[in-house]
Design a protein that fits this description.
Strand content: under 5%
Largest sheet: none
Number of helices: 12
Distance between the termini: 67 Å
Radius of gyration: 22 Å
Structural class: mainly alpha
Helix content: over 70%
Number of strands: 0
Order of helices and strands: HHHHHHHHHHHH
Shape: globular
């Protein structure tokens, strides 16, 4: 009475192959490279460093200006723009308090965007590429002790900000502890650079000199921590 319903056939053919190709680790990694190149090209096109010479657009004032700057800050860090320059600009444009708030918001935003881009688009391919002994050990440390490891990286900067974001994305570390450690650990150095930027017109003032002294000491501390971590990872990781 009723004809049997034919069983659904599994999807096959060019469409399936195209879908698998687009979702493959290397395709997603290629998308990540395109996004980063686009962000870098946009940064070069708009030349954000001109803000230090010409100032903030007059039509943007107060909290709106700080919010726009924070968004731009986050986008620029994704494009590998050095954070010290952005922090100095935040202090010069908005002063110490507002500049610090905008810079920290941009720091967490940029770290989160970089982490998610690396996790979604590049993790599988990057884990295939990064098979060295030290990188394998770093992956293990970030996976087991992610919060305190990222906190140390932010407190004693030795690894470039964007590189640390993408390195953490390749590990099994969760996003919430990564963002919390980034926000807390970035406060001291960000504040130092922002204060230096806000006092740049008075380079002999005690506040400016104190900020610069803290920056130098934190850089030396970062170099020492990086050196000790590198040798510890080298000892603790077995040879392949």
């Amino acid at each position: 009475m009723f004809d049997p319903v034919p069983a659904a056939r599994p999807a096959s053919g060019p469409a399936l192959r195209l879908t698998r190709t687009l979702l493959s680790p290397w395709s997603r990694f290629s998308m990540l490279v395109v996004v980063l190149l686009g962000a870098a090209s946009t940064m070069l096109l708009f030349e954000p460093q001109r803000l230090l010479a010409s100032g903030w657009p007059p039509q943007l004032t107060g909290g709106t200006a700080a919010m726009v700057f924070g968004l731009a800050y986050g986008a620029l860090t994704v494009a590998f723009v050095p954070r010290p320059l952005l922090n100095i600009a935040a202090g010069a444009l908005f002063g110490a308090q507002t500049g610090l708030a905008a810079a920290l918001a941009g720091t967490v935003l940029g770290a989160g965007v970089s982490f998610m881009l690396g996790r979604v688009l590049g993790q599988d391919a990057l884990r295939t590429l990064l098979r060295g002994r030290l990188l394998t050990a770093a992956d293990g440390v970030l996976s087991r002790h992610g919060f305190r490891s990222v906190l140390a990286l932010r407190l004693f900067p030795g690894v470039p900000f964007a590189a640390a974001n993408y390195c953490a994305a390749t590990s099994r570390m969760g996003a919430p502890p990564f963002l919390l450690a980034t926000g807390l650990g970035s406060i001291p150095n960000t504040a130092a650079y922002v204060i230096a930027g806000s006092e740049a017109a008075s380079p002999t003032s005690p506040v400016f000199l104190a900020a610069m002294g803290f920056i130098v000491l934190s850089a030396l501390g970062g170099a020492l921590v990086a050196w000790r971590k590198r040798h510890r990872l080298g000892r603790d990781t077995p040879d392949n």
